[in-house]
């Protein structure tokens, strides 16, 4: 099953005070770092970065597309990414630019958990669903389009419209590679403020 990744980079970043995509991460920008991690996680598959219209990003080894409407929400951005990659892959791993500790092994485990009959796989970490660290079949694009037409905004609207399998912590850590590199599942940690970003860095 050929996989790609969709990186959502067009959020408002209002609490951060500056675009998250351009935050520094050990010599590169956050978006460059996440694109690199995602590419390793999908084993060289195509990466699509979804940005706000007019948003400045550094040169990226990825397909870069604009949201149809600026800041229309993560559901619309995921839809744009699914459409962009739909002709090339069967499934995508979706993530934001604010999870710099994301491990390629985490991506591989989530993608590998997708079974026949599943439309998506969403990890459940610390009791919370992680729809921005999840796998989605590209065939979900028309389903999500219908949700958007009905006024849906967030990724948490997806489970009501399709078959989503939750992936529990012990299932994630049953993978020896992931357990070795990320036993505390810090892949799921994100940052919304400068202080949180500094703590992760």
List descriptors.
21% strand, 7 helices, globular, two-stranded antiparallel ribbon, eight-stranded mixed β-sheet, 29% helix, Spore Coat Polysaccharide Biosynthesis Protein SpsA, Chain A, 10 strands, alpha/beta, 201 residues
Strand segment count: 10
Structural class: alpha/beta
Would you give the CATH topology? Spore Coat Polysaccharide Biosynthesis Protein SpsA, Chain A
* Arithmetic mean of pLDDT: 92
Overall geometric form = globular
Number of helices: 7
Order of H and E elements = EEEHEEHEHEEEHEHHH
Q: Give Rg in angstroms.
A: 16 Å
User: How far is it from the N-terminal to the C-terminal residue, by CA?
Assistant: 34 Å
Main sheet properties:
8 strands, mixed
Oligomer: single chain
Number of separate structural domains? 1
The CATH architecture classification is Alpha-Beta Complex
**Main CATH class:** Alpha Beta
CATH homology group: Spore Coat Polysaccharide Biosynthesis Protein SpsA, Chain A
Helix percentage: 25-40%
